[in-house]
Design a protein that fits this description.
The complex is a heterodimer of chains A (181) and B (351).
Chain A: H1 3-12, H2 26-47, H3 55-82, H4 89-99, H5 106-115, H6 120-143, H7 147-180
Helix pairs in contact in A: 1-2, 2-3, 2-4, 2-5, 3-4, 3-7, 4-6, 5-6, 6-7
Chain B: H1 2-11, H2 26-63, H3 71-74, E1 84-91, H4 107-119, E2 123-132, E3 134-136, H5 137-154, E4 158-167, H6 169-174, E5 179-182, E6 187-189, E7 194-195, H7 201-207, H8 231-256, H9 260-266, E8 271-273, H10 274-280, E9 285-286, H11 289-299, E10 307-310, H12 314-326, H13 331-338, E11 344-347
Parallel strand pairs in B: 1-2, 1-10, 2-4, 4-5, 4-6, 5-9
Antiparallel strand pairs in B: 3-11, 6-8, 7-11
Chain lengths: 181, 351
Amino acid sequence: MNPLKTIETLVDDPAALLAAERPAGLGRTGLLGYAAGTLGFFLFLRFFSAVPPGAISFLVVLGFVLAFNLFFAGLIHLFLDLTGARGSSARLFLAFGCSDLLLALLVPLAFFAKLGYINGFLALCLCFLAVIYARVRLVRRLYSVSANKALLAVWLPYAGLSAVLFTAFAYSIAWLVWLVL
Amino acid sequence: MEEQNNSGSVNSGVPPAPSSPPAPPALPAARGTALWLKAVAVLYALSLVAAFVVINKADAARKTRPKDMALSKIAGLKHSKKDAVAVIPLYGVITQGSSSRSWDRGSQQIAKRIKTLSGKKEVKAIVLDINSPGGSVGAVQEIYSAVLRAKAETKKPFVARFGDVSASGGYYVASACDVIVAQPGTITGSIGVIFSVSNFEGLMKKVGMRSEVVKSGKFKDMGSMSREMTPDERKLLQAMIDDSYDQFVTAVAQGRKMDVEKVKLLADGRIYTGRQGKEAGLVDKLGDLQDALDEAGELAKIGKNPRVLSDSDPFENLLSLMDTKLSLFGASSLAEAAGAAPSLEYRWYGR
């Protein structure tokens, strides 16, 4: 199935995700979404010289994006499964790929940011918020849960990661103070 | 799916009940989605192409950007931009490291650093930043011979820079360098050897402690803290000290290209200020670290104010800091100091 057709189905009839059979072309579209989204993100970073040029550099970023999303999809599925919601983790991972297509918006936004019409960081934040919003909508459909629960499920891994990073940061500061004193 | 349901009901030929509301027009909405999705895809493709073009042009422009043609750089055109002067710090008492850990600051590690840095292609000269009252004879000579070997192998100039104190063993190491730069108020000199041993005999008697020694020869427990030194031992130790002193004087005479007798006149253990040292010929120039770097740059023919290659490795510094902190807040250093055996030292004990 044409990836555009699959996205069209997801937009017009999100309930198709719940069907017994996986929507046709979801796998291909999901992976294409990851690739296109990461390319948008990568080009955005290249505009600001934040990543080195080259295919290897892009593949490294893509690898990180896929690994993170696989981990996050697994965590979200685990949380939802433990709280009684039923759904498919594979579909969730692929649906997240479709939502990553929104990161393609970063390419034109990078132009605007470079021209000074918009702050680059703000553009990045807006795009990520749009992705999170799309993911909440998808989780809500995929697991037939309330919007609040879907929001909690999507934010949970980010919150957990932030908590771990903050703890590591606080611990390292305390450790450095101990080293210096 | 809605679309199929609606079209299905239309095609079935069954007319809808007059009372039921008309089905929502789903088809135009679906077409609308397809249309804007295609538009977004086309725009995405266009923006991708534009982004690639812009990034490639920016990269190409960055590569072909003309170099800064400042006049100060024209003078050094024949030299590589990477040419640098390495600075090796030599702080504190010079001792053999107690381990082979790379972050240890023992004489082995310093000698290794001298060898490594002098072997680097971009390093054209080396500055030894010395702030040390000296240390044990073996450790000082290890660094001294490392400097001599590096000079012989690489022909690179060495400059010694004196900070607060560079006396005795600190000066021994510096004498191997081509030029010595000191602050006017630096404490230097103290050319000589010392062997000191404490005598706890009285204290041990007071607390009722006695040391029993079984030895193979009469000098085997020479330097023991539990008894008085015998005249024979004193004579033997004096001979050792005289020999080490002679090595020190020879090293200074060779390094400073001075007459041995003249060095002996200066080498009665006295200390000098940097200015007195310059008058006596023990120091070449008065100045600070920047002067030492300029001197090294001039000797290496890379000009004044050369690029400085620091010897410090942040990772090793962190490991060193951790090592110090993890050794029971310095308790192990205290134990080492308490258990230190008397030894011959090129060291000034004035601080």
